[in-house]
Amino acid sequence: MKHKYTRFLYCRYIIICIVMICLTACTQLPVKPPIEKDMGYEVSPEPAEEKTEYDPSKISMIEILSAEAQKFSFQGNYQDALFIYNQALSQASEGEKSQLIQRIESVLAKTPTKTIEAFIDIKNIQIPRSLLLYWLGLNYALETDVENNIVRSKEVLETFLFEYPDHPYYSDAADLVDVIKKSLFNRDTIGCLLPLTGRYAIFGQRALSGIQLAIQELSKKYNRQFKLIIHDTRANPDIAIEGVRSFHQKNVAGIIGPLLTVNQAGMEAQKLQIPMIALTQKSDFPLQGDYLFANFITPKMQVQTLGAYLFLELGIKKVAILYPNEKYGKKYMELFWDIVDEYDGEVVGVESYDGKKTDFTEPIQKLTGQFFPIPDFLKPEAIELENNVAIDEDENTSLLQTGIEPEILEELKEKEEEKIQIDFEALFIPDSPSIVNLILPQLAYNDARGIYLIGTNLWHHKSLLKDAKRYNKQAIITDGFFSSSVNSATAQFTKNFETLFNTKPKFLEAISYDTASLLFLTAMDETIDSRQTLKDALQGKHVYEGVTGNTIFDKEGMAHRELFLMTIKKGKFVEISR
Fold first, then answer.
1. For residue 381, what pLDDT band results from cuts at 50, 70 and 90?
2. Taking CA 556 as the corner, what is the angle to CA 278 and CA 239, rounded to the nearest 5 degrees?
3. Residue 553: its H or E element
4. Quick one: the chain helix, strand, coil %, rounded to 5?
5. Residue 221: count of CB within 10 angstroms of its CB
6. Among the residues of 525-578, which ranges form H helices?
7. Beta-strand (E) ranges in 306-420?
8. What is the model's pTM?
9. Cα–Cα distance between 101 and 97 in angstroms, integer?
10. Helices and strands (H and E) in the chain: how many
11. Widest CA span of the chain, in angstroms?
12. Residue 288's pLDDT is what?
């Protein structure tokens, strides 16, 4: 960092020298015409209009003002010096202005940034705004003892470049901006915001283990030292904001995290223009700014993966949805219904249930067409026979009309019930294994057999293998990571993780590994020389091949990937190859 800063100061010195040399070469003082000596003949007088340009009273006033300004400048009173030069500039001729501009620039080079800022805000100022901006940017670069002045220097010079593309100092300012950008961008260092203490520490530690493995492997592969600066957020938004500010001062290339309190930290990262990839499924997070990204498993990813497999590969046409009547269930029900419509499928049944109950017979029978409740006002009244035996009117009528005895009629009814046909090929149940383990046996009991059972990543739990082992056939489950995948990158990651941490990785470890890897690999590109170009590269439709699949960020900063698919065979989760 010290070397970069020394190089930066050297570049600044070269730029100023070049500028001053150019100014000296291009702006010479007006030369008075020589005084003719009396050679014995009459000299014709000069035209009157030329005398007007070199009016003695006017020249003397400019010289007087300049001398006064120089006196203030020698005293270190640059503000008054500039005010007097400004007054002189308002009275100077075109020929005199170039000399005054040169003197003004020699004062601006020594003027504090606060003073120049004040002059920029003055209306009808005679000193050109372009010069005020240029020297303000250069002087900010020199005031390194003040926090964020390097950043402010870049911002001011970028304003100068934008407003004055044809200015003679344009290329010098552009060179300095490039030097500043490089000094502010440490491509081999990223910040990490995770809750490492407190109630959510277990999740932060799991994520950190994946990031650490990524750094270890990248350092070995590319023979360079990658650095991770860790800030424990303790799931506190204020502490997360402090972490972002600390990372900014340490010139990190980007930030991984946070897991929680993402909005507050994201707003600060956007303000400081630091690329941040949060480990969150909140789709609205990256919409807060173009420096914000989200990389996690989302409900939309899950239904898209399920939909593509069900309708494109299995050729299913009709599905049903059985969902818990709460926020999670409603969200997945709506998203799955949308994806069915997208593939021109048909939802033939949708039923909700109370997740606090254990009997799901009613919603299941409604889906299978076996539940036909009769309203009270349509229920028949019992008819009183002479022998005081009560018989329902509909049953009595059927006996009278058909002459069939009750025992035979009951047998016919049972055979009719056996012929009930399920008119959907797959049933989507977005709920946890504890509830699904209760629902699956009841589906079988109500003859809802031979259908695909569709679940979210919550189903990817060992309890489903044990507690519903007789009823989990034809299950189709999606998840963001599958440690037993045949994918070579996933398999190698799982092996390396187990060797290092003596436990199998799960999705959180894998997505953290991928996020760290893609951020470092993108920053390594030699064309990436600033946080802005890093941000642009992440949005540039580049596909990153990771252990969780192929990831790409859209223009809003949301990650997209095709997830893993699994089924259950011989009491184990097995990957569905596609």
1. low
2. 25
3. strand 549-553
4. 55, 15, 35
5. 8
6. 531-538
7. 318-324, 346-353, 382-384, 390-392
8. 0.71
9. 6
10. 22, 17
11. 165
12. 93
